[in-house]
Write a structure and sequence with these properties.
The chain has 262 residues and is an alpha/beta fold. It has helices at 47-51, 62-72, 85-88, 154-163, 181-199, 203-210, 212-215, 221-235, 239-250; strands spanning 16-18, 35-39, 75-79, 97-102, 117-123, 137-139, 171-174. The protein has one domain (7-200): Rossmann fold (3-Layer(aba) Sandwich).
Length: 262
């Protein structure tokens, strides 16, 4: 069992809380806000190795942390290392799930096979019924030059908000903010979701084809989505489309343009 100081005391800058009021459009009406927390503490046995520069650094009491997450939040997620699963899972309630952050690029050190994935223990705050199907894993490269070991990339964060079933109305608490990357990603994801409601962007269509995170901070999202929709429409087949093609062929094919000389 890991014993030491309270987990809140080991968070370098204290917990960060962000929330947003429900949007005025009908798509956001009637959504009940949920309290959701994400915990990315120093992994078991790694506090001194990676965070010795921080005088408040200490091993985390994961039993107390999981108890707090489960008792005080509608949904939550906990990042951890794969070797620590045997310690953490007996501490968790039976309704949790395990997601996976797979790292195509990772720092290869002494371990062989390399540690190229990290578990995410999570409990969704609401059902995803009626929303696009999200995978229980995400592939995203590690971050570099963020000033803090283990800083999470945006792609991971957007996936995290989706598997938790979150909406912009929710109250999100980052228990171990570190570099602040997760909180910044949450703000961007909320803005994106609210904009999508207003513009009517078909999130289910392109998210399954290209992945939400690929579009989340591109300046020309609408143009990218339009191209994707056109590509899908051009490749689609149906009996009605076949009948229209046959009728068009009987008339001599598609209309042609003729050049006339003056």
């Amino acid at each position: 069992m890991i014993n030491n100081i309270d987990y809140n005391g080991s968070a370098p800058n204290g917990a960060e809380r962000t929330t947003t009021a429900p949007p005025n459009d009908s798509n956001g009406a009637g959504i009940e806000p949920k309290r959701v927390a994400y915990a990315d503490p120093p992994y078991i046995g790694q506090a001194l190795r990676h965070y010795s520069h921080d005088p408040r650094c200490a091993e985390v009491d994961h039993a107390a942390l999981i108890l707090d997450l489960n008792n005080n939040y509608d949904g939550w997620a906990l990042s951890c290392s794969s070797p620590s699963l045997r310690i953490l899972l007996p501490l968790c309630p039976p309704d949790i799930r395990i997601g996976s952050w797979v790292k195509p690029f990772v720092s290869f050190k002494k371990a062989n096979p390399a540690y190229a994935w990290e578990p995410v223990i999570y409990k969704p705050c609401r059902s995803r019924k009626g929303r696009f199907v999200v995978r229980d894993y995400v592939d995203a490269n590690i971050t570099l030059k963020r000033g803090l070991c283990g800083a999470k990339p945006d792609r991971f964060c957007y996936w995290l908000f989706e598997i938790l079933g979150m909406t912009p109305e929710d109250d999100f608490l980052d228990l171990f903010p570190g570099s602040g990357a997760v909180t910044r990603a949450w703000e961007k994801w909320k803005d994106f979701e609210i904009e999508r409601r207003i513009t009517g962007e078909p999130v289910g269509l392109y998210a399954q084809e290209k992945d939400l995170a690929l579009f989340a901070h591109k300046p020309n999202r609408l143009g990218s989505i339009a191209r994707l929709m056109g590509h899908k429409g051009g490749r689609s087949t149906s009996e009605a489309k076949a009948r229209a093609a046959r009728a068009n062929g009987a008339l001599g094919g598609r209309p042609r343009k003729y050049l006339t000389s003056s």
